[in-house]
Amino acid sequence: MTLVLTTIVSGLCVGSLLLLIALGLGLTFGQMGVINNAHGEFIMIGAYTAYLVQRALGDPGSSLLLSLPVAFVTAGLLGVVLEVTLLRRMHRRPLDTLLVTFGVSLVLQQLARDLFGAPSVNVTAPAWLSGDPFVIAGADVPRTWVFLFALSIGCVLGLRIVLGVTPLGRRIRATVQNRDLAETSGISTAATDRMTFFIGSGLAGVAGVGVTLLGAISPTLGTSYIVNAFLVVVAGGIGQLWGSVVAAFGLGILESFIGFSIGQSTAQALVFLVVVVFLQFRPQGLIALRTRSIA
Amino acid sequence: MSTAERTAVTATRTRGLRRILRPRARLWLGTLAAALILFVVAPAALSGYQFGLLAQFLCYAMVAVGIGLAWGQGGMLTLGQGLFFGIGGYAMAMHLQLDDAGPGGVPAFMSLYGSGTVPAWWEPFRDPWITIGTIILLPAALAALLGYAIFARRVRGAYFAILSQALVAAFAILLIGQQASTGGSTGLSNFRGFFGYSLADPLNQRLLFFLAAGTLIGMVLLVRLLMRSRYGELLVATRDQEMRVRFLGYNPALVKTVAFVVSSVFAAVGGALFVPIAGIISPSDVAVVPSIMFVAGVAIGGRATLLGPVLGSLALSWVGAQLQDNYPSVWSYFQGALFVLVLGFLPQGFATLGGVLRRRKGDSR
Amino acid sequence: MSLPRTLITGAAGIALLATTLTLSGCTGAKVGAGASGAPSAKSCVDTSGDSIKIGFINSLSGTMAISEKPVQQALYLAEKQINAAGGVLGKTLSVVTSDGASDPNTFAQKADKLLTQDCVAAVFGGWTSASRKAMLPVFERDNGLLFYPVQYEGMESSKNIFYIGATTNQQIVPAMDYLAQQGKKKVFLVGSDYVFPRTANKIIDAYAKAKGIDIVGEEYAPLGSVDFTTIVSKLKASGADAVFNTLNGDSNVAFFKEYTNAGFTAKTVPVLSVSIAEQEVKGIGVQNIEGQLTAWNYYQTIGSPANDAFVSAFQKEYGQDAVVDDPMEDAYSSLFLWKAMVEKAKSFDVKAIQENSDGVSYDAPEGTMTVSGKNHHVTKTARIGVIEPSGLIDTVWQSPSAITPDPYLTGPDYPWAAGLATGASAAPSN
């Protein structure tokens, strides 16, 4: 029984990480139809931001908290630059955005390598995160995971509020549902796109701060997350916030169960395969937007 | 003479040349020129090392021809061609390993890292014909299954790209995890013979090059044949207006699946020939990034043209090999910049550069 | 034309074209025909001038650049020192570098280029086992020499490769001896998913079975993985009293962070790592691994005149903060070993070097290395170290004498390893 609980708890941990990295992608991919392959590199930028903030401040605790907004803005601004210079030209060509952003990711990786050097760097976790693990339902849960879980849930709620309540959120939803009609109603869709991309990329930056608590920061950090992030978004249903949440935790628990019973390295491959097979039967993902279009 | 006039003259001249040479004549001339370059000029002009390198690039170009068909003509962007390249490559590599081990023998790496016995699913690959059959039929069946299921459900292009990428990622991880039966991250290497011929003999290496060159030319001709057939028109029509094709009574899913199957078989054949030429196949040849690089050459050369994918892929590989040694950092920037510039500003690749420039000049008039 | 007909015509055309081409050309040698099937490649090395070309092949880009760039620096230091002292057989060394780009196939391509186009007399470098295994057939076909500077999983020997790093009986076996000596009874194995950890763990399993040690877990993470929740949970449940760690690169950071988060310390359940050297300590962050154990043959802190000279020369060249480690020291020494072999053979010829390699020795910073002509490995002293707060590693135990290399573990000291090496390719014969 404890083993099952441990598995579920560790699955929730993995799930919160998946959710964190997929959330911003869900916004840019789901709402705007832009396939941003450089999303992983925005995560990497967030991670290096956390490193720089810690180097400037010194104290691990305050620098972790400060780096969250700093990374959000840094990655978000970079996202806006990308949107304005490149992606705006390619609204009707989602497949091309995929390849262009891959090129961007190559450049950003090399840039990080030239700026920070090839060896990986590290941030120190604050004392209040490295204490004894919490015991939840008989399973040990390291404090960092509790923090990541809270961070991901916080991001989801924040995003939900922005999309659901604020005027900006209304504009974003209007643009997604019918771009032309939104434009006619006086909404500047270009400005809305910029804001959407700012938030989506910013969330990647926040995820980057989160992953510094787990591993090293290296120029190729983003590449290990990008495939997972896409799968969560697709499995959840494109443009579906709650779909992403369910998919992230579901896949996390699945991966943890396979990891416990067969082995960590098989787990990841099997999770990918499960998603591919699942989508063969339900290509619209877990939660689908009902539309009238046939294509 | 004004710019506009000069453009007009050039245009007439090219159009004139096209009119003089009938399509069939151009086809023969083109084939002859390609054959001349690959079979006569290349062996004479290149050093042994460059020749071997070009042979590998020809295999990559086979994948590119297939992507050109599926993506350029059919609109299906596949980021998972590494899967088929890998199936072809590993099937061939398994046969070569077993062949080297002799009848009933066990490949050396298996005794070192595995149980010392040949797994049951390896056994059929002792037979050369089963191996060749697998290289062609397995990818075809897999592509048909995968393609039809996805296209019949009218999955959008982006989904297809992401699914194919996930599939190739899973494939690479599985290969790495099975150290005892696939060689893990090291892959399979150190082959001595190819269907009885020694791979150490430079003469046989040369023949492999010719085999690859001949196959590549054959593939390009096959794509041309396909595109000029009624099917080719249907494929392009499906890419541009899937709904209308459906309303005309055709099954767009079937049309797309055929193109995807052909492109997958091309990739698998490329992988199979790559193995004896390069002497190695490992997960890093088939993973996510190489799969994107396959697409890169196609995008840069010009996805919707016949020769764009081949030339783009060959050029990208060649430039990469030259730059990487001397300027490893510059090469990364160059690659990235190429993606951004070509796809952002020249979406149909270099093949259309001339046309775009002419139009610009026309506009500025 | 209908689709099926087009396809069939086309496919038949390709097949016909390919077959004709193959049959029409006069084909080359068959496998096993004549002596070794193919004419041995003729060397194109130019020994007429005042200089002689050698090749360095390291990953300057990609994931392995972190480890391999410093190795190249060490190689350049050795080249500079040799040239300053008059070169080899009176000839100055001139270096050709190649980027392996962390990709096995690229390593194979570039090795071929170094041997057949640049015509170098010997090649130094390589890091991952995958890169070595990819290059091996190239060196055998082109008849070149590779000096490989990294510890590896053993079970291999080629007459065209000199293995300057440790084989298993010089690193892994002594490390297990040490854990056994410390009274550890329950060992948990964690490694990256590739050939070195898998082979090392196979050997450890055999060792443990013979010596009454329980292997309470054996887990592999995909290369580059940062998700260690499951593995550390299993470690916790296993009740292990020591961890044997063969993780590679950045996975170590994630593993040690998770290990610390779960409440483990070096005092309670020590981790003995075999892929973490001084260079890697910097990247992992010393606070994460202070007090943990490592197994190597060389540490920067070794006190010997040869090592003092090496460290100060390196720091003079690359800065006072520059750190050296085992693979760098092996790379540095490999160039001197080659020099000694050439001088003994009085020739740059591959065959002459192979024939004269036995017994050639060099007083390396780690101690005297002597080449075994039988398996092309060198003698090495095993050292267990503990990671200090400064990021350097102090020796806490070392083997009483230099250990003779035994890549296949067939010697009388390793009865428990019987059967591990069945099917290994034949040992080199000079």
UniProtKB/TrEMBL annotation, chain A:
Where exactly are the transmembrane stretches of this chain? 64-87, 144-163, 197-217, 229-254, 266-283
Which UniProt key words apply to this protein? Amino-acid transport, Cell membrane, Membrane, Transmembrane, Transmembrane helix, Transport
- According to the record, the signal peptide region is none
> What kind of membrane protein is this, topologically?
Multi-pass membrane protein
State the superkingdom. Answer: Bacteria
| Presence of keyword Transmembrane helix | yes
Main site of residence?
membrane
Q: What Pfam families does the record point to?
A: BPD_transp_2
Quick check: keyword Membrane in the entry? Answer: yes
Q: Which GO terms describe its cellular component?
A: plasma membrane
For this UniProt entry, the molecular function terms from Gene Ontology, in alphabetical order, are:
transmembrane transporter activity
Q: Where in the cell is it found?
A: Cell membrane
Q: Name one GO biological process term.
A: amino acid transport
Question: InterPro entries given for it?
Answer: ABC_transp_permease, ABC_UrtB_bac, BCAA_transport_permease
* NCBIfam families associated with the record: urea_trans_UrtB
Tell me which family the UniProt entry assigns to this protein.
Belongs to the binding-protein-dependent transport system permease family. LivHM subfamily.
Q: What is this protein called?
A: Urea ABC transporter permease subunit UrtB
Q: Which organism is it from?
A: Galbitalea soli
Q: What is the lineage of its organism?
A: Bacteria, Bacillati, Actinomycetota, Actinomycetes, Micrococcales
Protein encoded by which gene: urtB
From TrEMBL, chain B:
Taxonomic source organism: Galbitalea soli
Q: What is this protein called?
A: Urea ABC transporter permease subunit UrtC
Predominant localisation class: membrane
List where the protein spans the membrane: 27-46, 52-72, 79-98, 129-151, 158-177, 207-226, 247-267, 273-297, 304-321, 333-357
Q: Which InterPro entries match?
A: ABC_transp_permease (IPR001851), ABC_transptr_urea_perm_UrtC (IPR017778), LivM-like (IPR043428)
Q: How does it sit in the membrane?
A: Multi-pass membrane protein
Asked if the record carries the keyword Secreted, the reply is no
Keywords, comma-separated and alphabetical: Cell membrane, Membrane, Transmembrane, Transmembrane helix
Q: What Gene Ontology terms describe what this protein does at the molecular function level?
A: branched-chain amino acid transmembrane transporter activity
Coiled-coil intervals, chain numbering: none
**PANTHER family attached to this UniProt entry:** HIGH-AFFINITY BRANCHED-CHAIN AMINO ACID TRANSPORT SYSTEM PERMEASE (PTHR30482), SLR1201 PROTEIN (PTHR30482:SF4)
From TrEMBL, chain C:
A Gene Ontology annotation in the biological process aspect, one of them, is:
amino acid transport
Specify the signal sequence span. Answer: 1-29
Q: Which InterPro entries match?
A: ABC_urea-bd_UrtA, Leu_Ile_Val-bd, Peripla_BP_I
- The reply on keyword Signal is yes
Pfam families cross-referenced by the UniProt entry: Peripla_BP_5
Say yes or no: keyword Signal present: yes
Protein name, as recorded: Urea ABC transporter substrate-binding protein
Phylogenetic lineage: Bacteria, Bacillati, Actinomycetota, Actinomycetes, Micrococcales
Write the gene name: urtA
